[in-house]
Specification:
- There is one protein chain.
- This protein has one domain: Roll (2,3-Dihydroxybiphenyl 1,2-Dioxygenase, domain 1).
- The protein is of the alpha+beta class.
- InterPro entries: Glyas_Bleomycin-R_OHBP_Dase (IPR029068), Glyas_Fos-R_dOase_dom (IPR004360), VOC_core (IPR037523).
- This is VOC family protein.
- It comes from Streptomyces botrytidirepellens.
Amino acid sequence: MDIMGTSLRVCVDDLDSAISVYERLTGAEASRFQRGGVSVAAVGCFFLMSGPESEMEILRKITATIAVKDVDEAIADLTAVGAQIVAGPIPAPTGRMLVARHPDGSIFEYVDRNPGA
């Protein structure tokens, strides 16, 4: 699988305050979107997330978001090493995403940048 980059996930109580901090630290402008009931801001290599505790509890379990060339290729490679696909693939703002539990128990989100798929 071609890994194109990673994003660190940061759960925050006050998204607006956090955005100004991370914009200053990264020099990047935030791009905002909703994911269910969760407000998300992508700022540089960070995904800042804020929302209802019921949704945040689940999101805190995911270590990082990994951008890949193709989610289908990621599924094949993840399955080959014994990872479990726990969600997806489903549509995402940039293409498709899935959540996988690696054999060591780590949980990662994989997203592709293939909106036409």
